[in-house]
Amino acid sequence: MLAQFKLSIWVKASPGEKKTTMATRADVKDAGGNVTTDDDSHPAKDQSCRKGFCSVRYGLALILHLCNFSIYTQQMNLSIAITAMVNHTEASSQPNSSTEQPSMDSLGSWNETLKEAKALAPVYDWSPEIQGVLLSSLNYGSFLAPIPTGYVAGIFGAKYVVGVGLFVSSVLTLFLPLAADAGLALLIVFRVIQGIAQVMVLTGQYSIWVRWAPPLERSQLTTLAGSGNWYPNLIFIHPSCFCSVRYGLALILHLCNFSIYTQQMNLSIAITAMVNHTEASSQPNSSTEQPSMDSLGSWNETLKEAKALAPVYDWSPEIQGVLLSSLNYGSFLAPIPTGYVAGIFGAKYVVGVGLFVSSVLTLFLPLAADAGLALLIVFRVIQGIAQVMVLTGQYSIWVRWAPPLERSQLTTLAGSGSLLGTFVVLLVGGLLCQTIGWPYIFYIFGILCLGGIGCACCLLWFPLVYNDPGSHPFISTSEKRFIVCSLAQQDCSPGWSLPIKAMIKSLPLWAIVVSYFCEYWLFNTIMAYTPTYISSVLQASPKDSGILSALPFLVGCISIVLGGLLADFLLSRKVLRLIIIRKVFSATGVFFSSMFLVPLPWVRSSQGATMAFLVLSAASSSFCESGALVNFLDIAPRYAGFLKGLLQVFAHISGAISPTVAGVFISQDSNAEFGWRNVFLVAAAIDIVGLIFYLIFARAEVQDWAKEEALTHF
């Protein structure tokens, strides 16, 4: 449905519909034969618009990608659901008869799961022949539909053909369960009509490419749109090891982290368009509607072509550094009570409320920027506190849900949402600034996270997420037994008292604390300043800056999941001891990320080398997530919520200092080369120092103070 709404806003039958008047053929060529239009007499100027992913046609490809994704999920859902809809043991003379209680059969665990779920849905007595008819009925009305659909779309335009088809298919999908209860005949009719509607989408979209896809880009545009067909198979037909409540929980937390990090990164993108690079004002929040041309050329030209869709502020590099780091100002004290409360009362409501508050504040950031710099900083501080509730509270869940042999892969699967969110906002942020103005970065991701992903997380979170397997009503007995038995050797029950003195004296805990501070210094530097570095140092245009800035985080997202799988594989096969795994992964992440970061100022003349080093640095640093950053779950699972809050305090202190220090280095150096050199050298040096301390003092066994009842009351 969301894809259908986007389609109606974006898609035009042809690029010419965007103009209020069509150019005549006399307007097309001038005396010299060059292509011109009524509002642009410089054909060479438009050549750059034919390159890069930040263009309307690539936005159209992305929307069609989502349309195809929606259609194929709707095609696949019955193929998956029918395994739960059918009673495999009982046969009835009525083809649509149902029973509310499935019985046990040779499929054992599946029917046991249904029984434990208290028959939340009816089960039908459909024979294999009837099931075959149902699965194939989607194609019954599709034999003749493609020809008239393609013809009509080619004549009258595909905008409404595709949009109506997507809408009808989506609505019918919602009513399929009711149709199944009403009768087999009605269900088949719904599937036939749904198949015709889906043909309208899959066939009609190619009439769009006739008018939108240049011949030299036709393959990449159509494949980008068509690749949406493959994700549903990846999502619905997944390995059996992921068919569990704990992996579903990891996926929901992945979406939560995705939402939070899109909201964290949006200012880092928008600030490149919010700031007037040429004029300085005595008022830190003064603004102008028309940015002037300066050394950044293409960026200001883009702003000018956008007709100053948003105000531009005269913020110095120091003020920008304060704004970027203000997200961490209110986060110094919040993680400790957040982790403590989540550990005692459960993280379910802590995480849900934090996600909601952060999403709402994201919507109002552009208004706060107009109202004044002070209000904008206050909003960012409150938003940081709300985000801490999400990022800290979730670890109290893993103490009771993650078996030791799966701890790395579950936490990294959930945590990879942060890098994926960073990748997405970097990829599309430049396009949003260029086309509709920087405020829409906040509006779209605020609305997306509040009304789309964030709302979906809340809808999934509150009914499906439980603080422990014992209270979950849908979990199978086998999975519940597996988790409980795996965690039986460690004391996961939280206590009202905390061994404060013992914690202060614990060198293994201090090793993790120091690692958090040092590793997050480098991570926050990369996350906050990657777009600025690519835009200012590499002189990349806004069209290219988004995708270049996003690449390191996409690779990091993949690497973090692979690192978690590798760590748990080495542990389960007993290749290495747990402490060796933690130290090796930390050393790999810190050493190689620093090694690839330091040479950046010396290779600034080569865009390819710079991007290669940035990507390798991000990929390497992601291995730390399976090292020191998850080590606190090993040494003190009982106090995981409190410890994660404590560690987040040091991470946010680092996050507050590092962008500010970077801003000072850059502003004090008239030649940005030396300023950036100092930024990267300091970040790498701090990270190496933290690694050395961790390698000396880190441990992986549960500490004595984590086994005791109470030493000091909090």
Question: What's the layout of helices and strands?
Answer:
Elements: H1 2-10, H2 25-28, H3 56-85, E1 98-99, H4 109-116, E2 123-124, H5 128-136, H6 146-156, H7 159-182, H8 184-212, H9 218-226, H10 231-236, H11 245-274, E3 287-288, H12 298-305, E4 312-313, H13 317-325, H14 335-345, H15 348-371, H16 373-401, H17 407-435, H18 439-464, H19 477-486, E5 497-498, H20 500-505, H21 507-536, H22 542-572, H23 578-597, H24 607-621, H25 632-635, H26 640-668, H27 672-697, E6 712-713
Antiparallel strand pairs: 1-2, 3-4, 5-6
Helix pairs in contact: 1-3, 1-7, 3-7, 3-8, 3-9, 6-8, 7-8, 11-15, 11-16, 11-17, 11-18, 11-21, 13-26, 14-16, 14-26, 15-16, 15-18, 16-26, 17-18, 17-22, 21-22, 21-26, 21-27, 22-23, 22-24, 23-24, 23-27, 26-27
Domain Major facilitator superfamily (MFS) profile: 243-702
Pfam family, one: MFS_1
Membrane topology: Multi-pass membrane protein
